[in-house]
Amino acid sequence: MSRVGFAGLGRMGAPMARNIRRAGHELVLWNRTAARAEALAGEIGCGVAESPRALASEADIVVTMLADDPSSVAVHNGPEGLFAGTRAKTFVEMGTMSPAHIAALCYAAPEGAVVIDAPVSGSTPAAEAATLLIMAGCTEEAAETAHPVLDTMGRKTVFLGTPGAGAVMKLAVNSLIHGLNQTLAEAVTLAEAAGIAPEAAFDVIEASAAGAPMIGYRRPLYLDEAAHEVTFTVALARKDMEITAALAEALGTAMPQGRVTLETLGKAEAQGYGARDMAAMLNFMREGKE
Q1: Separation CA 95–CA 13 (nearest Å)
Q2: Mind giving me the DSSP string for 235-253?
Q3: pLDDT above 90 covers what percent of the chain?
Q4: CA–centroid distance for 145 within its chain
Q5: Which CATH number fits domain 3-162: 1.20.120.530, 3.20.20.10, 1.20.1250.20, 3.40.50.720?
Q6: Alpha helix positions (H), the chain
Q7: What is the mean predicted confidence (pLDDT) over 205-222?
Q8: Cα–Cα distance between 249 and 246 in angstroms, integer?
Q9: CA-CA distance, 9 to 32, in Å (whole number)?
Q10: Which partner for 65 in 13, 56, 196, 274 could form a disulfide, CB atoms 3.0-4.6 Å apart?
């Protein structure tokens, strides 16, 4: 088995790292907040690296689960970045990034190294259960080293052929998710205004043709946001839609619904919803802040 390095131990990254270790891989961790890496290492029995460079000097393959392009730049580049390491030859970026950033990583990677964009679709519970869908911007052959590691974290990996394709597909999927999140908030608000209880509205929506899996597993958050931990913030949703809108513009593709979703998320963030779960868009609509 490969010795794996993992950087980025947030809501998604920590359970993904646990699953890699549970599958029997040797594992080394790094996180910007060192205490988080040390606590997880003590829990699952693995090493901790002092810097991204040290991480890539101790591992054959490095997996990163980072929040955005600037975070990824900071971790990969520079004298203490991953690309300054001496051992790793496969770098797998699993966060939601722009295709342009993936192209820049491929350009900046050390000679002989492979960069794979492999973002995921799924919630925190899916990360914990290792049932994520992974969208890899490479061929299956090119992922020979990474494939066994990806299998520890997801139920399926779709190989999309070329670098950046995973990033594009993740943005496309998330544009659907964030659009559904917004239209669900509007639909439930409409039903409530007519006197229908939210629980009953969800019962109908889940059983209808519009009953996407996301509605079912996020239902508890929609019905009682305050009683549950945040899984994906409004600010991150806005970030996703900003990148998606910019990509659509660069490709000359119309995305009118996506731009409405972006505008509404921006308004919610400006009014203090940024750190709340994206399920809070239901409360945003209920409060008539749109």
Answers
A1: 9
A2: HHHHHHHHHHHHHHHHHT-
A3: 98
A4: 22
A5: 3.40.50.720
A6: 13-22, 34-44, 52-58, 69-76, 99-108, 124-128, 147-151, 165-193, 198-207, 213-223, 234-251, 256-268, 281-286
A7: 95
A8: 5
A9: 9
A10: 13
